Amino acid sequence: MVKRISEISFLSVLIGLFLGWYFVFQVNMLDFWWRMFMTTLIFSVISIFLGGKRNIKPNKYEAPLAIYSAVAAYLLFVVGYLISLLIPPFHRDVVSVYGLAEGQNALKVIILLVFIAFFEEIIWRGFVTEFLLQRLDVVPSILISSLLYSVVHVFTGNMALIVGAFVLGIILSLLYVITGKVSTPAFAHALWSLLIFVVLPLKGGF
To answer: Has this prediction a pTM greater than 0.90?
Structure first.
């Protein structure tokens, strides 16, 4: 039986996430990757404690779904990148995202990318989306959770990142609804992150 997440728990975590994302993108302490790692780790633990799902043990049927979804998301972002070439301010935002990796140790970023992806999915799908699914139909749950995932990125001041978060949120939330497991969107998120930042960066990268 799935533990019902209370409204006060949801609101508390949501407020905390806005403060946490402000810290990640606006506070100059350590570097971005360690700030993101620590913030997502803390809130993933809190999310689990307050009733969020943590079922990240995969099965053999999830691997193809996660891989196909990660590749599809990457290709969708390629289309977005090509469109951004026609809109200079938006294109500059896309390129600036890769500045987060400049001057960083590649192995460190790769490892943290994977951990951050899993922590984020425990938070945003296992807790936020799960809370909404316990009260709303599937479509509004996916849209609202994706919108919230997008809005917390407003502290970046980067429209490309805000829009990208919304699109990725829809894909990952849909995976969560289909499988009922955090592991599927978590693996898809991790693979997508490695594709877009390391393997086949759209601009810059390592």
So the answer is: yes
Of the CA atoms within 13 Å of residue 38, those in its CB half-sphere come to 11
Taking CA atoms, 167 is separated from 62, 145, 147, in Å, by: 21, 11, 9
pLDDT in tens, 152-196: 999 998 999 999 999 999 999 999 999 989 999 999 999 999 999
| Residue the block writes with tokens 């992150």 | 193
Judge whether 146 and 82 are in contact, CB under 8 Å: no
Each residue of 91-138: pLDDT tens digit? 898 888 887 777 778 899 899 999 999 999 999 999 999 999 999 999
